[in-house]
Design a protein that fits this description.
Elements lengths: L2 H25 L5 H23 L6 H31 L1
Helix pairs in contact: 1-2, 1-3, 2-3
């Protein structure tokens, strides 16, 4: 795991999440637009946070550092998907 691979992963996974939010908002324009916008804002903040951590000066073994960051990214993106899933299921009722 290196910096380039991690940045590509951040771009891909956070970007896909934002795309999923935009797709839901497009298909359901009258439902939960404020909630979707708030989740997209969280995703953008996560993107910026992870990029800042990736660009920070690294002390110690780089591969261990990036593996930890990658794990953090997956946990946080998963939490965002849980929020999106909650909004989608609430809208179906």
């Amino acid at each position: 795991m290196n910096l380039r691979d991690f940045k590509k992963d951040v771009d891909y996974f956070v970007g896909e999440f934002v795309d999923d939010c935009a797709l839901f908002a497009t298909l359901n324009p009258s439902q939960a637009t404020d909630e979707i916008a708030a989740i997209i804002d969280e995703a953008v903040d996560l993107y910026n946070e992870l990029k800042d951590k990736a660009n920070a000066k690294i002390e110690g073994k780089k591969s261990t550092y990036f593996c930890g960051l990658r794990k953090e990214m997956f946990e946080k993106v998963d939490a965002l998907y849980e929020k999106l899933s909650g909004i989608v299921s609430a809208q179906k009722k």
